[in-house]
Specification:
Layout: H1 16-28, E1 60-65, E2 68-75, E3 84-92, E4 96-101, E5 117-125, E6 130-138, E7 142-150, E8 155-164, E9 172-181, E10 185-196, H2 210-215, E11 217-220, E12 231-234, E13 240-245, H3 250-255, E14 259-264, E15 269-274, E16 283-286, E17 292-295, E18 298-300, E19 311-312, E20 316-320, E21 325-328, E22 342-343, E23 349-351, E24 366-369, E25 374-375, E26 394-396, E27 402-404, E28 420-423, E29 428-431, E30 445-448, E31 456-462, E32 472-479, E33 488-489, E34 497-499, E35 504-506, E36 517-520, E37 526-529, E38 532-534, E39 537-541, E40 543-547, E41 552-554, E42 569-572, E43 578-581, E44 595-598, E45 610-613, E46 617-618, E47 623-628, E48 634-638, E49 642-643, E50 653-655, E51 658-660, E52 665-669, E53 680-687, E54 697-701, H4 705-711, H5 771-780
Parallel strand pairs: 46-54
Antiparallel strand pairs: 1-4, 2-3, 3-10, 5-8, 5-10, 6-7, 6-9, 11-44, 12-13, 12-49, 13-14, 14-15, 16-17, 17-20, 18-19, 20-21, 22-23, 23-24, 24-25, 26-27, 27-28, 28-29, 30-31, 31-32, 32-33, 34-35, 34-39, 36-37, 37-40, 38-39, 40-41, 42-43, 43-44, 45-47, 47-52, 48-50, 48-53, 51-52, 53-54
Pfam families: Glyoxal_oxid_N, GO-like_E_set
Domain Galactose oxidase-like Early set: 607-700
GO biological process, one term: carbohydrate metabolic process
């Protein structure tokens, strides 16, 4: 049948025979460069010898790194002319080898920021471990690795590889590139070309009001969220799983009423889902098959006197989007109220932190085996006995290590610098420097910036629910490609209006926000929205775009009219809009309104369409053909959201370099590195030169098990030497059962009201330390009148001693 036709010319682990047949197809239908001359390279075919005594042709150099044995040779077996370059790797532990255009002003082609370039070469190879690797010259920072663009297939005969670069980043004046060999084998190359893409994109036409085209627009939906959701997961079918559990409502917990709902943003319908346990403050992540792993949750609320804190469940469930039901897995080794959840490159899930069944801090690393479909026994999981706190943001790096960004929920950051690289294989934790005010990163947000290949992380805002200062407006950025990475200061978060209980006023001074949401958009920007100035109070109405291309904010966007503080979340929908839900301030109320943000890119005229995606089952190193209705400038995979408490460490935007066959037929080059794009379902977007995205098509990355087995090997990640000059790891703690955690970790004084209420243990600094001022603050923030006093009265809220506040 026609829809079964698949093009896998670039399959990562192709057998030699298959590669030879594929090469034949490429030769019969060559993919010519669309830009045409001039070729910007000097000596593209190795015909000009280097200076006397040089062992490489003019304008070419030997390059590579790692533990491997290799040879370079200029040979007569050429595609054109009389010379070609042969690179052989005979033994490899790690690293790669490549012939690279010399990194100097004479040889490296000059490029223009914002433009795109077609790179092409002819090659022969007997190994699938080949990649098109590009470096760029930053006018400030010098030469640095930029990106990998393609994995050309095995080819016994001469074949041509071509790929289009992303838009050249700012401050870049030159690029260089070559074909890397990162496995045992031989690669011969010839006739390189770099050609500027000549088409100038048309100017966009505004289809909305001037405000909509500049700032976007919010709409509050007529249908409300039927549950007090704390967690949101975008499912592989475009629906949204909203998990409440008891919804931070102790009366629901006592009644055993636990809820979830599935929202269909297309139909506008909602279905309530039976929920087996209290998944309030659980962890969740999408498995490779698109099911959702939900771990831990709430075993018990704090006692009325505050002597016992929240308690974590051991329970774990899998939610199936097809049947919309939960199925129990085996238990975790311990309770983890507020656990992390990070999917690894092999599809396993690793989890840290949270509170145990007895409210102490869990120091056990937990690992869910994708192959076995269960949590592994503790003695089968490497343990550092570290306590990472609550919802620690653990982001998968391109070599399989984890980066703890410093974002967390509740209290102070971890001891040391507040940010670390965790190496599971070596079982080591190494601090990285630079994170400012690491003890005020409670409910900050961290994201791996677009594209994931750049390995840069942005951390935004935050506060501290224990000391309760005004939330900060700090943003810090770290480049994990550097040998010894550290955070550097980014631009301050833009300010908006804040409501501190007496109506909205402009933010002043250093006021920022916590509970912030950060959403990766298909145009490559990050939407930051929502948040509050203090713990569970004082909503901030402000939104902006962060642009990774120039590390700057675009302030003044339209703002969500609904307050979005504690237990709120925002996330990308497959149609390119953003959905925002939740708000659970300290007075125990919950806002059921659902808001939808339409970004400015949807007011810029017609959207490009993906008219066909020939295959939606992708494997690493694939070349996947799509057709579009008009030219696009880039394509990417965006992993669907699984967000709670400002945290979604699995959110990532993976660039798909393009081989442009013609204006409507494009081959997408899929990374061979599963650590850049862990297996699972992704939203595929095509984006035109004006940043206008298509509606997403769902594709599954990883490949069918039978197909992977037929290949006979797993994909080999093409990694680069980066973050390889870190300081010495810090010593791991001795084996222990738990870390001490105060029962007041949630920042609430439990002497007042029920466990669903959060009277702040520390009022904001501007509130006088008097009964009258505190009671006025509680009234302005709509706390119930006459809350019961549970035992003593440390905040002096019961001056007449009748057992009721104020």
């Amino acid at each position: 049948m026609q829809r079964k036709i698949r093009r896998r010319a670039g399959r990562r682990a192709a057998l030699l025979a298959v590669g030879a047949m594929t090469a034949g197809l490429l030769l019969t239908a060559p993919q010519q460069a669309t830009a045409g001359p001039p070729n910007l390279l000097t000596n593209p075919g190795f015909e000009t010898a280097g200076p006397a005594g040089a062992d490489m042709p003019a304008c070419w150099e030997k390059s590579g790194w790692g533990d491997n044995d290799f040879t370079f040779a200029t040979v007569a077996d050429a595609h054109g002319g009389t010379k070609a370059m042969k690179v052989s790797v005979t033994r490899r532990v790690d690293g790669d080898r490549k012939a690279l255009i010399t990194e100097n002003a004479t040889c490296a082609p000059t490029v223009t920021p914002g433009r795109q370039y077609d790179l092409s070469a002819w090659y022969r190879s007997n190994t699938p471990d080949v990649s098109v690797t590009v470096f760029r010259h930053d006018t400030t920072a010098g030469w640095q690795y930029w990106t990998d663009l393609q994995n050309p297939p095995v080819s016994a005969a001469w074949a041509r590889t071509e790929v289009r670069t992303p838009a050249v980043p700012p401050n870049t004046d030159k690029i260089t590139w070559g074909l890397s060999v990162y496995g045992v084998g031989t690669l011969t190359t010839d006739d390189y070309a770099v050609e500027e893409v000549g088409a100038v994109p048309p100017q966009p036409a505004c289809t909305g009001t001037p405000d909509q085209c500049a700032k976007g627009a919010w709409e509050v939906m007529a249908a409300q969220n039927p549950v007090r959701s704390m967690h949101a997961v975008v499912l592989r079918n475009g629906k949204v799983l909203l998990i409440a559990g008891s919804g931070n409502d102790i009366s629901q917990f006592n009644a055993g009423t636990f809820t979830s709902a599935v929202y269909d943003p297309v139909a506008g319908s909602v279905r309530t889902i039976p929920t087996p346990v209290d998944m309030f403050c659980s962890g969740h992540v999408q498995l490779a098959d698109g099911r959702v792993l939900v771990m831990s949750g709430n075993k018990g609320y704090p006692s009325a006197d505050g002597k016992i804190g929240y308690q974590g469940l051991k329970d774990s469930y899998v939610f199936d989007p097809a049947t919309e039901t939960y199925t129990k897995t085996n238990d975790m080794n311990g309770g983890h109220w507020y656990p992390s959840a990070t999917v690894l490159g092999n599809g396993d899930v690793i989890s840290f932190g949270g509170l145990k069944e007895d409210s102490t801090g869990n120091v056990t690393a937990e690992k869910f085996s994708a192959a076995q479909g269960r949590w592994l026994p503790m003695n089968q999981v490497n343990q550092t006995w570290s306590y990472w706190g609550l919802y620690p943001s653990m982001i998968l790096m391109q070599d399989g290590r984890l980066f703890y960004s410093g974002s967390h929920t509740f209290g102070n950051g971890t001891a040391g610098s507040g940010s670390s690289v965790y190496d599971y294989a070596a079982n080591t934790v190494t601090d990285v420097p630079g994170l400012r005010r690491k003890d005020e990163r409670d409910e900050s947000a961290s994201v791996l910036l677009p594209p994931a290949q750049d390995q840069r992380v942005l951390t935004v805002g935050g506060g501290n629910n224990e000391s309760n200062p005004a939330a900060n407006r700090l943003t810090d950025i770290i480049d994990l490609k550097k040998p010894s990475p550290g955070y550097t200061a980014g631009p301050d978060l833009p300010q908006g209006l804040v409501d501190v209980g007496a109506g909205k006023r402009p933010q002043t001074g250093a006021e920022g926000k916590m509970y912030v949401s950060a959403v990766l958009l298909p145009d490559g920007k990050v939407l930051e929205t929502g948040g509050g100035l203090h713990d569970r109070a004082d909503p901030v109405f402000e939104a902006s775009f962060f642009d990774p291309a120039n590390n700057s904010y675009q302030p003044g966007l339209a703002t969500d009219p609904i307050p979005r503080t504690y237990h709120s979340g925002a996330f990308l929908l497959p149609d390119g809009r953003v959905m925002s839900v939740g708000d659970n301030p300290g007075n125990g109320t919950y806002n059921h309104a659902v808001s939808i943000y339409t970004p400015p890119y949807l007011f810029k005229g017609p959207r490009p369409r993906l008219t066909s995606v020939i295959d939606t089952e992708w494997i690493y190193g694939d070349t996947q053909r799509i057709t579009v209705d008009r030219p696009i400038a880039k394509a990417e995979l965006i992993r669907p959201a699984a967000v709670t408490h400002s945290s979604d460490p699995n959110q990532r935007f993976v660039d798909l370099p393009m081989t442009v066959v013609n204006n409507t037929t494009i081959d997408l080059n899929v990374t061979s590195n599963p650590n850049l794009a862990p297996p699972g379902w992704y939203m595929l977007f095509g984006v035109d030169a004006n940043g206008v995205p298509s509606v997403a098509t769902w594709v599954h990355l990883g490949g069918a098990p039978a197909l992977a087995a037929a290949q006979g090997q797993q994909p080999t990640a093409h990694e680069h030497a980066f973050a390889d000059a870190l300081a010495a790891p810090k010593p791991n703690p001795q084996q222990r059962d738990a870390a001490p955690v105060a029962p007041t970790v949630a920042g609430c004084d439990r002497h007042y009201g029920t466990a669903s209420l959060c009277v702040p243990a520390n009022f904001p600094a501007e509130v006088d330390r008097t009964t009258r001022a505190r009671c006025d603050w509680l009234a302005s923030h709509r706390f119930p009148k006459g809350m019961k006093v549970n035992g003593s009265d440390p905040l002096r809220l019961d001056p007449d001693g009748d057992g009721r506040t104020c």
